Each structure stands twice: as structure tokens, then as C-alpha cells.
Amino acid sequence: MVVDSLMAVKKTNSKGETVYPVKAVHILKAHGGSAKESRLINGYALNCTVASQQMPKRVVGAKIACLDFNLMKTKMKMGVQVLVSDPEKLDAIRKRELDITKERIDKILKAGANVILTTQGIDDLCLKYFVEAGAMAVRRVAKEDMMRIAKATGATMALTLSNMEGEEVFDPSMLGAAEEVLQERVCDDELIVISKPKIKGAASIILRGANDFMLDEMERSLHDALCVVKRVLESKTLVPGGGAVEAALSIFLETFAMTLGSREQLAIAEFANALLVIPKTLSVNAAQDATDLVAKLRSYHNAAQTQADKAAMKWYGLDLVNGVIRDNKAAGVVEPAMSKIKQIKFATEAAITILRIDDYIK
């Protein structure tokens, strides 16, 4: 599910590099049901419904207008007073208030929009115009969702219809495009799904869980998984997991330390020994015999580095379920090489920073 969602949002940047933006994967949380009922939706899912049940639930070849103002009966601004002596003129003012919003809606619809999304409200009177035009209108869309939709569909978010001359216009170039927009029932909720946006792909994952705490924990785990897959896809390099890298480095550095005839030998030997903390901690956490397992792992990696016929043993790491050493490459236990390099670099830098502190203030 994680891999499919990131492949859906794959894009090429200005440098010609393929990138997988994690933020483009929209995560929705829904109460009830089992975690196994979580699903991937190929498109951008909005936790909203159409503003009126008389509107179409599916629009093919959607032209999307993204608005950041309300489509309600126009009211006078605060502090504005209108003194009317003729009752007929009072009716004319009320009629004009209604007509201003009607004209705005007509301009949006004439531009070719058939899906209207707004971050604010649409009152019942204005809904009537959209129903008559056969357009889909969605109100109270979150600002963050609106910005993502505008980016994916190529729409321009309209804060107002006023132009530089003070006239109200809506340019067709401000519309975004998507292959299909439909209201779909997912689990117990109705969602608006924007499928195959024009500019870039979109994916949404709906998480199911018993309560808020479980859903929050699932979201954090899913975000970690997305970041790991992104690292792998962008760097295209993997290393075996289960302490294999640390054990191999430890053996290699110990051998290298022996070739030095200065005090650097001690520092390198200590660094090699420190790397074994990872496989030891993994073994202890799995309630296995850490001393025995790490000793076996070191012997395998020593053989891999000294005997040409046993070079395949460099892929060997810990199998903590069965408490044995196995070929982790064949077992599919791998990690992104970029993450492993950064872990060792950051740990070394943190140790250097602490050692530079020669005094502290009580």
C-alpha cells in the first residue's frame, strides 16, 4: 500500500531527478473497523460531501474551481449605514444583494467550471444555481487540502474575483482539471475523490482503527514507512539488515587498525567495538543470547572478508525470531544504505560534540 501510494505521486524535478514527495500522500483517519480494513485510494480524497443531494455525485472531465471566499448572500460591511426613505428602494437593495452573488456564480460557471470547491460556506439560495447548472459544489474544504488540490490539478486558488480595474471576472485559466471527481462511500463515510489530476498524481490512504490513539499511532508508523520507501526509491541502494552492516564494519575496522603503528589504532579499535552495540541490543531486545549470537555473526563476517569462497556470507545477519544467523538478503531483511550511512555519521558527530565539552556549569 505504501509503495503503491508513493509510485502514484512520483514526479521528475527541474534537475531531472525522480522524487517521491511524502506530503503528496494524503492520510485520512476513520473510526471503527479493523486496521486490516485500511485501504489505498488512487486519487485525492476529501473528507467532505457535496453541498446538496440534488447535485451529481460523479463528474467526468472535471474542471475544478478552487475558491477561498464564501458564496452566500452579500451583506453590508460592518459600520456601513444605508438610509432609505422609500420602502420600494429597500426591496431593490435586498434584490441587488442576491444578484451580486448570482452574478459571481454565473461568471464561475460560464468559465466552464463543473466542480466548485470553496473553503467557506455556500447558502441554500446559491446552491440552487449550482443544482440547475448540473455542477458539483463542495463547501468547508480545509485550506491545506485546497492548496494540495490546486497544485495537483493546476488550478489557481481564487481569493477574490476582483481584477486590477476593480471589475469582477473569473478567467478560465484559473480552473484545474482532473479525469473524474466522484463521491464515494468508503467504510462508513462519504468522501469526495479526485481521480487522475492533470498536473501530478495523487494518492490517499484511509486508516481504520478503534480509537484516536490507535489511529494516531498508525499514522506515525505509516509516515515512517513512507519515509523509508522514499529513501530506497530515491537512493536506489540497499544494505542487509539485522546487524550485518555493523558486524562487517567492525571486523573490517579491527583488521585496518592492526595495520597502523600509531595511537590511531586504539581509536579505530574502540570505534569497531562500539559498532557491535547494535547487534547486541537487537539480540537482547528479542530475548536471545546476545554474546553467543554476536560471536557467531562476527565469525561469519570474518570468513566472508578473509576467504574468497565464503564471500556470500557478507549478507548474513541476525534472525531474531529463531535466534540464528541467516542470509538476510535472501530473507528480504534490508535497509536503505543512505539511512545507515547517516546513522553512523550522526552518531560519530554527536560523540565528537560531547567530547569537545571540557566543563559544565552547575
Any key phrases for this structure?
single chain; 362 residues; alpha+beta; 6-stranded mixed sheet; 3-stranded mixed sheet; 15 strands; 42% helix; elongated
Description:
The protein has 362 residues and is α+β, with helices and mostly antiparallel strands. The chain is 42% helix and 21% strand. It is built from 11 helices and 15 strands. The protein has helices at 2-8, 87-110, 124-133, 143-153, 212-235, 244-258, 264-275, 277-285, 290-306, 328-331, 337-356, and strands spanning 11-12, 18-19, 25-31, 39-41, 44-46, 58-67, 115-118, 136-138, 176-186, 189-197, 203-209, 238-240, 316-319, 324-327, 334-336. The strands form 5 sheets. Strands 5-10-9-6-7-8 form a 6-stranded mixed β-sheet. The longest helix has 24 residues, at 87-110. The chain is elongated. The two termini are 52 Å apart. The model has no long low-confidence stretch (mean pLDDT 86).
